[in-house]
Design brief:
three-stranded mixed beta sheet; 363 residues; alpha/beta
Length: 363
């Protein structure tokens, strides 16, 4: 999973990126200090994998990972090339989802490019630029379809969808909020629309609001917007996340408890990303390696096996499956087997989140 971190300049994107990835990307109080995108690979925290590591003491421990891409701050006119906008927009096309960082804190010492804190205005500024970029793509596609239509009337449904979407763009509505169905998506084909990408709003709040973000009026406005369009939202304090990133693992839980929160912003953002993209993890375990594998919810056993190796899918025989919670209660794989908790599943079995799986195959 690749998540692009976007937002206006000086909203805390690079500070958050540094905290998430410990990559030490350049961060400064002026626009465009990030020109080429910084990329960081972040391990996905998973208590289930930690438990399996304690059980097996494996030679190798391999968590699932997320790639975060810190994309430079967009400004008004980005779609027309303002502030190197065209270059930055091309970086957004390459990600699976967008983490849109929105400033929801007041601080006179940190410049806001629009002159003051207003999360809804900031969201609309970014959305407008993404819509303008999408309109350019859509116009080219409409022109091609209209020309082809003279000799192929079967393209009429596609033109209808394209024109309907253009109407929505003209009204300032991003593609993700239009309610496109499966047939519409097929007709749109491979147009890489920026506003069709799933969005998680990251409300960058002040340290005083961490324990109770709902008391922050800026956050509440942003949450209402996210709910209206079916987007994800998490509240983080980028400065505090930077502090958490400096801590040893043993110190982290005590620090979070002191702040009155259950998990870090990183954990919240990862959970929101998995949920938004419909992803789950299954686990494999043994003395050689314990490992988490990320798949789409609804994936059947042979296709999940193919994530490990194409031979596993091609020669799939069966999957031996135990739910993690059942394994944890049993205390060991042998105890789980004796209790009849390990099931033999065939080609139609849909892998569940937290399944511990051993694939049997023959090629």
């Amino acid at each position: 999973m690749k998540i692009g971190i976007v937002g206006l300049p000086n909203v805390g994107k690079s500070t958050l990126f540094n905290a998430l990835t410990s990559a030490r990307a350049e961060s400064a109080n002026y626009p465009f200090c990030t020109i080429d995108p910084n990329i960081g690979i972040v391990p996905v925290p998973d208590r289930r994998l930690d438990y399996l590591a304690e059980m097996y003491h494996p030679e190798k421990y391999t968590p699932a990972t997320i790639e975060f891409v810190d994309i430079a701050g967009l400004v008004r006119g980005a779609s027309r090339g303002e502030g190197l906008g065209n270059k930055f927009l091309s970086h957004i096309r390459e990600v699976d989802a967008i983490a849109h960082v929105v400033r929801c804190f007041e601080d006179d010492n940190i410049i806001h490019v629009e002159g003051g804190v207003d999360p809804l205005r900031d969201v609309e500024t970014i959305d407008t630029e993404l819509i303008f970029a999408d309109m350019e793509l859509l116009e080219r596609r409409i022109d091609r379809v209209r020309k082809a239509l003279k000799g192929d009337r079967t393209l009429e449904p596609e033109l209808d969808v394209l024109l309907g979407l253009m109407e929505k763009f003209n009204a300032g509505i991003p593609a993700r909020a239009v309610g496109l169905d499966e047939k519409d998506m097929e007709l749109l084909g491979d147009i890489p629309l920026l506003t069709l990408k799933p969005v998680i709003y990251v409300a960058n709040i002040g340290e005083d609001d961490i324990a109770a973000p709902a008391e922050n009026p800026h956050y509440l406005k942003l949450k209402e917007r996210a709910n209206a369009e079916g987007a994800g939202i998490v509240a983080v304090c980028a400065e505090v996340e930077a502090e958490i990133a400096e801590l040893e693992p043993g110190e982290k839980s005590a620090f979070l408890s002191e702040l009155g929160i259950a998990e870090s912003g990183l954990d919240s953002l990862i959970s929101a990303g998995y949920s938004l993209l419909g992803l789950i993890s299954f686990l494999t375990a043994g003395p050689k390696e314990v490992r988490a594998w990320t798949i789409k919810k609804g994936t059947k056993a042979p296709q999940a096996a193919g994530k490990i190796h194409s031979d596993f899918e091609r020669g799939f025989i069966r999957a031996e499956v135990v739910a993690f919670e059942d394994l944890a209660r049993a205390g060991s794989m042998s105890a789980a087997r004796e209790a009849g908790l390990i099931r033999s599943e065939g080609k139609d079995y849909v892998i569940k989140d937290g399944d511990v799986v051993l694939f049997r195959f023959n090629v």
